[in-house]
Design a protein that fits this description.
Chain B: This is Dihydroorotate dehydrogenase B (NAD(+)), electron transfer subunit. The complex is a heterodimer of chains A (about 300) and B (about 250). By secondary structure, chain A is α/β, with parallel strands linked by helices. Helix content of chain A is about 30%, strand content about 20%. In chain A, a hairpin with a 4-residue loop joins strand 12 (about 200) and strand 13. Classes of the chains: A alpha/beta (about 300), B alpha/beta (about 250).
Chain lengths: ~300, ~250
């Protein structure tokens, strides 16, 4: 029987599939389909220090091979998350990652302090939300920015710290190195690519925010390439995401160097995707004599 | 079960007006759970996003759901190509539907492709319902006979006067003082109906649409500004709606 357990920064996940932040809310809507323990973990909707209303509609636009979103970090704030959502999430038999976004280093540090005293498993530092002017992306697009925010949060954070990287940079592996050097325990990559769609009749962008984050199947080759480049540079584990829609995509991402995986947009196509991907991974492992899924991490043989 | 994904065989398909299609699918579990005014999220092969399509009618005995939709773009064009015997991949029933109180006098107001979601609820009211529906022209008039067959009084308006009253649906309802109004259609029509309801102190529910992704309230894509206790806040059409009390919505 294939062993799907993975260990990311000391946290054991019973399978490598984690629901990506922003696609899964706080889990309740998907619990109508299946027990959330089908997932190895859940990364929460991006949380901020104070509640945020989010952007005006439209927030969504379709694009070939994917979609754009600009939700704008609508969330009830970290205190609400801790008291109202976390206790329920904690009972679902899966690892819980708090995805936090902020406007200032102080915001991030204050949230990290609040979360230290909870039983979340990990913090995911969102410094790559492209959809709000001050949602952390200002920290995520330069090495100095990534270093600075990682260092600041690290000093306040007693939980395993994962830094989520933006692909909207010249060399994402340099950002990963910057995070690693300041004490990040893991990297998750990639966030959405900034994109735009225009309504040719009204001559306005379809999304009210003008631009949005592009996600979905078309992102996969870009994400696989970026994970591979980064895997060669950092020692800390990489949680790979970006366009994973099938078990074959999941295997590719693992081979490129990911230790665990996040899935997001595919959930909108097929809410049952986590079950199908996990079953496909297990069958692939059995067929290929892979005992532990960790054997696949970085096992690609480049030309 | 609140909602689920099912493959639903298409039992009937017809083009009932220009670019407007009428499908009935076998969906016993979904029909059993569905209520008038809810919607379905239908998978389109080759597309990332499902298409939210209102449930036009529910036959719990036959275990079927009916959808009437207009081809608006590439996604609905693909759905329109499905044939009898094919299956739609349907996530349903979603959202909150209309409040149905059949003993009351109800007015249903629909504009264009906003008409289909009214049928299921109107059927519960039968003779207690007046249905005022407006279309661009005669060629776009749909479901008039279905409402009549349910016993409703039907009034039709067209923009160009080619059928029924020449003008707006609002012109058809000014003499009416129902207990409740249920409306779906273009925003400009909904604003006018909500205003009419407010002036006459009538309970009014409106059904909205918005671009959406997950359909179940997780992604927060389909935002709508709602009136709350301390100012306005962003709700979501898929979960808080698609049917809202008119006074709740910032129109």
């Amino acid at each position: 029987m294939a062993d799907l357990h993975v260990n990311v920064a000391g946290v054991e996940f019973h399978n490598p599939l984690i629901a990506a932040s922003g696609t899964f809310g706080f889990g309740r809507e998907y619990a109508e389909f299946y027990p959330l323990s089908v997932l190895g973990g859940i990364s929460s909707k991006g949380i901020t220090l104070k509640a945020r209303p989010g952007n005006p509609a439209p927030r969504i636009a379709e694009a070939p091979g994917g979609m754009l979103n600009a939700v704008g970090l609508q969330n009830p704030g970290v205190d609400h998350f801790i008291t109202e959502d976390l206790p329920w999430l904690r009972e679902q038999g899966t690892r819980i990652i708090a995805n936090i976004a902020g406007n200032t280093p102080e915001d991030y540090c204050a949230m990290a302090e609040k979360l230290n005293d909870t039983d979340i498993d990990m913090i995911e530092l969102n410094i790559s939300c492209p959809n709000v002017k001050q949602g952390g992306v200002q920290f995520g697009t330069t090495c100095a920015g990534v270093s600075g925010i990682t260092k600041a949060v690290r000093a306040h954070c007693r939980k395993p710290l994962m830094v989520k990287l933006s692909p909207n940079v010249t060399d994402i592996s340099e950002m990963a190195l910057a995070a690693e050097s300041e004490g990040a325990d893991a990297i998750s990559m990639i966030n959405t690519l900034t994109g735009m769609r225009i309504d040719i009749n009204t001559k306005r962008p379809i999304i009210h925010n003008n631009t949005g984050g592009f996600s979905g199947p078309a992102l996969l080759p870009i994400a696989v390439r970026m994970v591979w480049q980064t895997y060669q540079k950092v020692k800390i584990p990489i949680v790979g995401l970006g366009g994973i829609s099938t078990w074959q995509d999941a295997v590719e991402m693992l081979l490129a160097g990911a230790t665990a995986l996040q899935i997001g947009t595919v959930l909108f196509i097929d809410p049952y995707a986590p079950i199908k991907i996990t079953e496909g991974l297990a069958a692939y492992m059995d067929k290929n004599g892979v005992k532990s899924i960790s054997e696949l991490t970085g096992a690609m043989k480049p030309w | 079960m609140k909602y689920d994904v099912k493959l639903c065989e298409i039992l009937r398909r017809a083009e009932i007006a220009e670019n407007t299609f009428d499908f009935t699918v076998r969906a016993p579990e979904l029909a059993a759970a569905a209520a008038p005014g809810q919607f379905a999220h239908i998978y389109v092969p080759g597309k990332t996003l499902r298409r939210p399509i209102s449930i036009c009618d529910i036959d719990k005995d036959a275990g079927t759901l009916r959808f009437v939709f207009q081809v608006r773009g590439g996604g609905t064009a693909e759905l329109a190509k499905f044939k009898v015997g094919d299956a739609f991949d349907i996530l349903a029933p979603l959202g909150h539907g209309f409040t149905v109180e059949p003993e009351k006098k109800a007015l249903f107001v629909g504009g264009g492709i906003g008409v289909p979601p009214l049928l299921g609820a109107a059927k519960h009211y039968g003779e207690n319902a007046t249905v005022a529906i407006g279309f661009r022209s005669r060629d776009f008039v749909i479901l008039e006979d279905d409402f009549k067959a349910a016993g409703c009084e039907v009034r039709v308006a067209t923009d160009d006067g080619s059928y029924g009253h020449h003008g707006l649906v609002l012109d058809l309802i000014r003499d009416l003082r129902p207990d409740v109004i249920h409306a779906c259609g273009p925003m400009v029509m909904l604003r006018a109906i909500a205003q009419f309801a407010k002036e006459n102190n009538i309970c009014c529910e409106i059904s909205l649409e918005e671009r959406m992704a997950c359909g179940i309230g997780a992604c927060l894509g389909c935002a709508v500004e709602l009136n709350g206790e301390d100012g306005t806040y962003m709700g979501h059409v898929c979960k808080d709606g698609p049917v809202f009390a008119a006074e709740r919505v910032v129109l």
